[in-house]
Design brief:
Layout: H1 5-14, E1 59-68, E2 80-92, E3 98-109, E4 116-127, H2 132-135, E5 150-156, E6 160-161, H3 167-177, H4 187-192, H5 202-217, E7 222-229, E8 240-248, E9 260-265, E10 271-279, H6 289-294
Antiparallel strand pairs: 1-4, 1-7, 2-3, 3-4, 5-8, 6-8, 7-10, 8-9, 9-10
Helix pairs in contact: 1-3
Length: 296
């Protein structure tokens, strides 16, 4: 795939970026979650799911992770992706029924090198019981990122409450990303799957959360972001994004953890997602002009 200027700007608009670097007329920087759009370049023969019939009525996106060996790719970068199923395992859900978890990893490299420059990991959840309990949202507590760098000292970033989500927002993101699951825009399909109606694409709100971080620390600052969804977001939901700069424990340098945690909640206070972010060593903590724009 080629990281295209027009697609960068389209994706940035769909994820409500306020960073000018995503919209430059030449050489824009791609948003942190941009490589989710690789589905638009991927032929069926390239997919790890080739030959597998997927029941999208009973599949949820559980987690997503992007790991960068350097800044996010700039416009004009040519990438080669290799996608594979890393592992599959089963668990019994809190509401009963077996759920199958599948981790798919896509490793991107430049044509001139065998070195991975970005790794994208996705965890999907297949629910096997088609009942009201089985199709209800999977809600998990906001567990801490495993590891030990967090000393418990946190500095809050300025939170913001976004405008209410609409199905048009969902469709705009689907067009920008290549995720055309009908459960996010087709009322009849969503209701036949046991939901009240279409709900937000998880990667839409994940992209907004990632842009919230880069507006604060810079578009080249993120080296790793891990997102875990806890509840669906629905049309009419005005989500609130709250970020925390986490102080590292110097004695635990290099261990798992995060520099920034983002908590996204629905209007009723229920958690929608939590994201953990590792920053480049040189990433500053000063409030940027773009960050100020988020709050107004």
């Amino acid at each position: 795939m080629v990281v295209e200027e027009g697609k960068i700007r389209e994706f940035a608009r769909a994820t409500r970026s306020r960073s000018a670097e995503h919209f430059r007329p030449s050489d824009p920087v791609s948003p942190v979650t941009f490589l989710a759009s690789s589905a638009l370049w991927m032929g069926e023969e390239n997919s790890a799911w080739r030959g597998v019939t997927r029941d999208f009525a009973n599949i949820l996106h559980g987690e997503q992770e992007f790991s960068f060996h350097g800044p996010p790719p700039a416009a004009g970068t040519e990438l080669i992706g290799l996608q594979s199923i890393d592992r599959t395992y089963a668990k019994t859900g809190a509401r009963g029924g077996v759920m199958t978890f599948t981790e798919v990893v896509t490793r991107f490299r430049k044509p001139s090198s065998e070195r991975t420059v970005v790794e994208m990991r996705s965890v999907s959840i297949h629910k096997h019981l088609r009942s009201a309990a089985a199709t209800a949202p999977v809600v998990r507590p906001a567990a801490a990122e495993p590891g030990g760098r967090d000393t418990g000292e946190r500095t809050a970033l300025e939170p913001f409450t976004d405008t209410a989500l609409t199905i048009t927002d969902f469709v705009r993101y689907q067009g920008a990303s290549g995720d055309f699951n009908a459960i996010h825009h087709d009322t009849a399909f969503a209701q036949a799957s046991g939901y009240p109606g279409p709900f937000a694409v998880g990667m839409l709100t994940a992209g907004i959360a990632a842009n919230y971080v880069t507006a604060h620390f810079g578009v080249n600052a993120v080296r790793r972001i891990r997102i875990r969804w806890q509840d669906q977001a629905w049309p009419g939901d005005a989500l609130t994004y709250r970020g925390f700069r986490v102080r590292r424990d110097p004695a635990a340098a290099g261990t798992a953890g995060a520099d920034v945690e983002v908590q996204v909640t629905r209007p009723d206070g229920r958690p929608h997602l939590v994201a953990w972010v590792d920053l480049a060593d040189q990433a500053g903590a000063e409030l940027s002009e773009e960050m100020s724009a988020w709050a107004h």
